[in-house]
Design brief:
- By secondary structure, the chain is mainly α.
- Helix content is about 45%, strand content about 10%.
- Strand 2 and strand 3 (about 155-160) form a beta hairpin.
- Helix 2 (about 65-75) runs parallel beside helix 3 (about 100-110).
- The longest helix has about 35 residues, at about 1-35.
- About 25% of the residues are buried.
């Protein structure tokens, strides 16, 4: 009977040792993966300061032009810039632009998905902008372009026709 107990004990010990080795190698693999990740740096923008009155003015699209919006999407500008001096924010849904062309928009969205994702990631990294969007019930995933000319106004272009 002692031989049987010793056999079971040896089997259990071997299984535990195998599990420990597997766990150790997994942890080492995770550590090396984490060690290989680097901070990509500042994605742009300044989350400090206060933003003035924010209005969701979908009805007043002013001089918004689809070709300008498409150019912004294609340029892939993720440099949000300093928004601390912004006092006027407009949120414009691209479908409300006078010369809206769904096919042209879809082509731009499909051809520049990585640019849009990078912009949305930059916005997610900017507390002031995420606050503006939240206050205006705008989901970051709807943002397709942003215009900040450092003149106190910020225009956020969305595509909410999912």
């Amino acid at each position: 009977m002692n031989d049987a107990v010793n056999g079971v004990t040896n089997t259990v010990d071997g299984t535990v040792n195998t599990l420990n080795d597997t766990l150790d190698s997994t942890v080492e693999g995770v550590n090396s993966t984490v060690d290989g990740v680097t901070n990509s740096g500042d994605v742009g923008g300044d989350a400090s300061g206060s933003v003035g009155d924010v209005s969701n003015t979908v009805g007043d699209v002013g001089n918004a032009d689809l070709s300008n919006i498409l150019s912004m999407i294609e340029a892939g500008n993720t440099d949000i810039g300093d928004i601390s001096g912004v006092s006027d924010v407009q949120v414009i849904d691209v479908a409300d632009v006078a010369n809206f062309d769904a096919n042209a928009l879809n082509d731009a969205l499909n051809g520049n998905a990585s640019n849009i994702t990078a912009l949305q990631d930059a916005i997610n990294g900017n507390e002031a902008l995420t606050g503006i969007l939240s206050d205006n019930a705008v989901d970051v995933s709807d943002v397709i372009a942003l215009s900040n000319n450092q003149d106190g106004s910020l225009v956020i272009y969305t595509n909410s026709q999912d």
